[in-house]
Amino acid sequence: MRVVLDSNVLFSALISPHGPPDFIYRAWRAGRFEVVTSREQLDEIRRAGRYPKLRAVLQPDKVGVMVNNLQRAVILERLTIEVEAADSGDAFLLAMALTGDADYLVTGDRRAGLLQRGHIERTRIVTPAVFCAEVL
Questions:
Q1: Are 116 and 104 in contact, with CB atoms under 8 Å apart?
Q2: d(CA 20, CA 24)
Q3: What is the distance between the alpha carbons of residues 32 and 51, in angstroms, rounded to a whole number?
Q4: Cα(5)–Cα(109) distance, rounded to whole angstroms?
Q5: What is the model's pTM?
């Protein structure tokens, strides 16, 4: 099974251990499914990890460890598919889901319209809690 994890889910896993995002991250690390990521997302995580707002709640070394761990994921070098999204910043997540042939896209962002969309082709778009309940 292949899964795209929105960056907000990955950051949530670092910020609040023992919640659904952390459970998902640990399940991936235990080999229960494959994570699909991209160079674009890895760059976004590195960049966002330096934002003052996140630095207040995250240690930079933990972000670095996560980026290093994600080097073991399925990394898409180039996203050639263009997808429209209500929030243009999320278009690359949808492109990752399609290019990476993902079964799920897991996001905690209720404002961006991804969850309201529900799916893109065969990829289901769900919250961390739904993913845990249905898959893990």
A1: no
A2: 6
A3: 31
A4: 11
A5: 0.94
